[in-house]
Amino acid sequence: MMLPDSPQNIVVVRAPSPSVHYIPSSMSGDNIIIPTQNQQPVHSFGQPVSESWCLTSVKVIKFSFNWTINNFSFCREEMGEALKSSTFSANLNDKLKWCLRLNPKGLDEESKDYLSLYLLLIAAPNSKCETRAKFKFSILNAK
């Protein structure tokens, strides 16, 4: 029996034990003897096939926060000056604290003709852990 080196011809041997037996990449002869004990799955390229796997779940918390700025048209903040919302979190027990920062006349010279709005992480229980946020801003004009 001859198996060419090709991804279409993959030989897998399954057994409960973790020891490894390799099948050479080019096999010839009519009789191939493969031990039936102490085997790990392998394929025809001489590399073991892993039987272990892992599933990691990431906690996702969805929430919304509404910030109303009364009389916004009368804001007199200059470029670089900011308004800040109150601090908020997803729920009462959440240790991640956020706020919104709004620069009505931009943050710097480059953005002076634009309103700048930022989501800021104010507090996190473990500063070594990475915190990611996917967010969407909606600015509504109350007429």
Keywords:
Apoptosis, Tumor Necrosis Factor Receptor Associated Protein 2, Chain A, 2 domains, 3-stranded antiparallel beta sheet, TRAF-like, MATH domain-containing protein, MATH/TRAF_dom
Please specify the SSE layout and strand pairing.
Layout: E1 83-84, E2 97-103, E3 116-123
Antiparallel strand pairs: 1-2, 2-3
Give an overview of the whole structure:
With 143 residues, this protein is mostly loops. The protein has 2 domains: 1-50, no CATH class; 62-143, Apoptosis, Tumor Necrosis Factor Receptor Associated Protein 2, Chain A, CATH 2.60.210.10. 0% of the residues lie in helices and 12% in strands. It is built from no helices and 3 strands. The protein has a 3-stranded antiparallel β-sheet with strand order 1-2-3, with no helix packed on it.
CATH class of the largest domain: Mainly Beta
pLDDT average, as an integer?
74
Please give the largest β-sheet.
3 strands, antiparallel
**Helicity, as a percent range:** under 10%
How many domains, in number, for the residues? 2
Strand order of the largest sheet: 1-2-3
> What is the straight-line distance between the termini?
82 Å
User: Per CATH, what is the topology of the largest domain?
Assistant: Apoptosis, Tumor Necrosis Factor Receptor Associated Protein 2, Chain A
Tell me the overall shape.
Answer: elongated
Strand segment tally: 3
